[in-house]
Amino acid sequence: MIRDILIAPNPKLKTISQPVRQVGARERRLMDDMTETMYAADGIGLAAIQIGIPERIIVMDLREDEARKPLYFVNPEISGQSAKKAIYREGCLSVPDIFEEVERPAACRARFLDYDGSPQEIECSELLATCLQHEMDHLNGILFIDHLSRLKRDMALKKLRKAKKREESAPERPSLAL
Ligand code: GNR
Ligand code: NI
After folding, report:
1. Does pTM top 0.85 for this prediction?
2. What whole-number distance in Å separates Cα of residue 20 and Cα of residue 17?
3. How far, in Å, CA of 171 to CA of 165, rounded?
4. Could you tell me the sign of the dihedral formed by the alpha carbons of 21, 114, 70, 75, in that order?
């Protein structure tokens, strides 16, 4: 099921998500909804809090080819980060139409549980490292705009509030198919 994605400055996005106690049928259903929502929104990653569920679950698919290869991360923990940094122009499904450069460790290692609840470890670099760190920030209530200078963040928030106002005064209505 495709779920609605929360848009900043929705205060729920600041929630610190809770660890998952066990990976069962309910959690797998949630992960399925998350991948469906991510693909429908054309994103490369999604954290559960972005659909309003404060649990430490992430799905990702960098979409390097046609075939869908979703990655699932439950209770991820960073177990190592490179001193070397990398800069990527980031976007976020919860921060629509805003793209800014963010500096993060260029590579990282993480431990997590997979779709079956089995413990795994992954070493990431490049876009995978950036995306995983962006998603793990969501689990701690942090958005990529929180990494920007105060000026750039305020400009982004102003743009978001403006877009919300525009939406409220002229809401999109489903057109009648006659
Ligand atoms: O779809 C997404 N693209 C993206 C591009 C650069 C850095 C991070 C991302 S993640 C984002 C999807 C999203 O908002 N995940 O939380
Ligand atoms: Ni995001």
Report:
1. yes
2. 9
3. 10
4. positive
